[in-house]
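In keeping with the milestone schedule agreed at the kick-off meeting, the structural modelling team has produced records for the first pair of proteins. Each record is given below as a sequence line and a structure-token line. The laboratory manager (R.T.) confirmed that both were archived under the project's standard naming scheme.
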Amino acid sequence: MRRLLAISLVAALPLSTVTAAHAQAPDDRQQAFAAAAEEFQVPESVLLGVSYLASRWDDHAGQPSSDAGFGPMHLTDAAAFTGSNHHHEGAEDARGDESRPLPVAPPPA
């Protein structure tokens, strides 16, 4: 019985060191969130929470999601992704507010 216990402990020892080394390895994403939190004076927990709610931290293997979002913050640049801006016709109210008239800008002088 003692021998079996000793063999089990020796066999489990490498697993504990691998786990400890993995836990201490730097995480680039975590460092990026920490740097952004410091730069923009936003609590890191807020950035992490918003990013999780936006994307569930699914990066879609670097491809855009069905909503054309990228990365953990689900950032979008739909115009760049599709290659055009959907306000190219000029007659559309870009505000998305059809209930009030669009103010007409005076012609340039």
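The second protein of the pair:
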Amino acid sequence: MRTVMAQRGLSFEDAINAAILASENLPPFETPVHRLGKPRVSLDRALAIADELADESIAR
């Protein structure tokens, strides 16, 4: 970015503004969605289960 700024004689603020304006023409980013099915473990206790698994791995 510094190289482009130096080549074009732009300040940091002008370079950032140009990058933001250039990105407006891009299509919006979309994250693909996948069905994962029903959880096999109650997610209400996810942190407790993770703690138990960590404790087991440390005990080994």
